[in-house]
C-alpha cells in the first residue's frame, strides 16, 4: 500500500498539467454546487418567491388588518432571506483554488530534507514551507469540561496531522486529568487563572504564549483529519488571506435533535458559505479554521465582547481589508447537539451574537469599510435568526380566524388559487431542500418550526445587553429534563391543541371545512412531534442514568469486597505477638477483624433515583 510519502512523490503536479488551466478546474467538492439541475431549481424557487410576494402585496387580496400584518411581517422576512439565499447559492460554484494554491501545495515540503531525517513514515515531522520560508504552526484545542474520551480522540488526531506543528490543549476547565492526558499524548498544556472572554479569551491567552506564523482552532469534539494542514496552509501563499475555514461536519446523527441540527447546517456549509467566497464574505465558524497570526494581531486579537466571537472576528478582518477563504472539504468531524438542552444553548448563543451585530454594528451603515456584496452578506448573517421568529407570527394567524373570524386574505379567493401561490414559495423551497440534502428531512422542518422561543429570547438578550453564558456543545453533565428548556413550546402546544378542538367543533356545527383548521392542526402536530421527541429523550436519559447508578453501585461493592478480603492479610503478622511464641494456635487471641462490616453498609452518597 502506498504511503503518504509515496503519494507525495507519485501524484502528478497540478501546475504541470497542460490540459487545463488550474484556476478553471473544478474542485471535487464544488461539483454539486455547479450542477445545472441545482441552478435550475434555484431559479425556479426564486421565481416562486417573487410570484408569492406579488400575490401578498396585491391590495385586492388583503384581508383583516391584524392577521394580514402578521403574515406580511413574517413572510417579508422569509421572502427577503429566501431571495438572498438564492443569490448566494447561484455563486457557490466558484473555486478558490487557483494557480498560487497548487503551486504552493506542490512545494509545501522539502523531499530531500524528509529523506535526510528519515521521516518518510512520520508526516507530522515534515517541515512546511511557503515561498521557501519555513513555517511555524500552532494547533489550539479549546476545552471546557468535555469528557476525557472526546478530548483524547481530538488531541490524538491533532498531534499526528501531516506537517510539522505544535499542538496545544487550552484547558479552561482546569482539569488535572486533561493536563495528564496532554502530557501522555505529546501535546502542550495551557491553563489560565481566569475565564475572562470565554473561548476568545482562551485563544488570546494562548497567543500571548506562542509565536507561530499560523494557528489552527479546533473545538475539543472535532477530530481533524491528517491532511488538514496540507489542504489549508497553501492558501496563505496569498499574502492577504486572513484565515481558511473548513465546514463543520458531524458524525453523530443518532437522535432527532442531532439529525435536525446537523441537516439544518448542511445546506449552509455546502452551498451558502462557498457562495460567499465570490464576495470575499466567508466568515469563521469558530472551529476547523486556520488563521494567519498577523491578521489576528491587526485587529487586536480574537474579538471578546460577544459569545459569537467567530463572526465578529471575521467582520473586523474584512473591514481591515483582509481576504478570507472557505473550502467545503471535510477536514474535521465533530458532534452536533444531541439533546434539547444542548441545542437550545447553542442556538441561543449563536442568535444572540447575530442580533448584536444587527443592533450595534449594522453592516449597511456607511461607516463600515465593506464592499456592497460584503454588506449584504453580513446583513443576512445579522438578521438570519429573524427567520426563526417568523413561525411564531404565523402560528398566531389561524387562532385569530378560529376565535374572531379575522382572515389574513380576501375570503373570495378559492383554496386552489391560494394553494397555487403558496406552493410557488413553500413547495419549491421543500423541493430545493430535498435536492440539496438528498431527501426530505422532516427533522429540519420540526426544529425550524419550534425554535422561535430561543430566538425571541436571543433578541431580548441583544436588546437589553444581557450577558450570555458560555456553553460547550459537547459537554457532558448531570441529567436535566428537556422540558426545563421548552416551557414556551409546551404552552403553545396546549393552546394550539385547544384551538384545533374548537375549530373541529365549529366545523362540525357549520359543516364548512376551513383553511384555518388545517393550518392550525398542522402546527399542532409539529409542536406535538417536538413534545414527543423531548419525552423520548427524557425517558432514554433517565434509563441511562439508572443503568449508570447500578454500575457505580456494583463497582463500589466489588471494590469494598476486595478491600475486605485483602485486609486480614495485612493484619495477620500482628495477630501473633513475639512475646508468646509457645501459645497453642487454638488458644491465641483472635486477630483484629477487618473492616468488612462497614464495607457492606448501604452507601448514602448515591444520587437520588
UniProtKB/TrEMBL annotation:
Keywords: Glycosyltransferase, Membrane, Transferase, Transmembrane, Transmembrane helix. It is a multi-pass membrane protein. It is found in: Membrane. The chain crosses the membrane at residues 38-57, 69-90, 376-397, 418-438, 485-505, 511-532. Residues 574-609 are annotated as: Disordered. Its EC number is 2.4.-.-. Gene3D superfamilies: Spore Coat Polysaccharide Biosynthesis Protein SpsA, Chain A (3.90.550.10). Residues 574-584 have a biased composition (Low complexity). One of its GO terms (molecular function) is glycosyltransferase activity. It holds the Pfam family Glyco_tranf_2_3. InterPro entries: Glycosyltr_2/OpgH_subfam, Nucleotide-diphossugar_trans. It is an enzyme of class 2 (transferase). This is Glycosyltransferase. It comes from Cellulomonas wangleii. The lineage of its organism: Bacteria, Bacillati, Actinomycetota, Actinomycetes, Micrococcales.
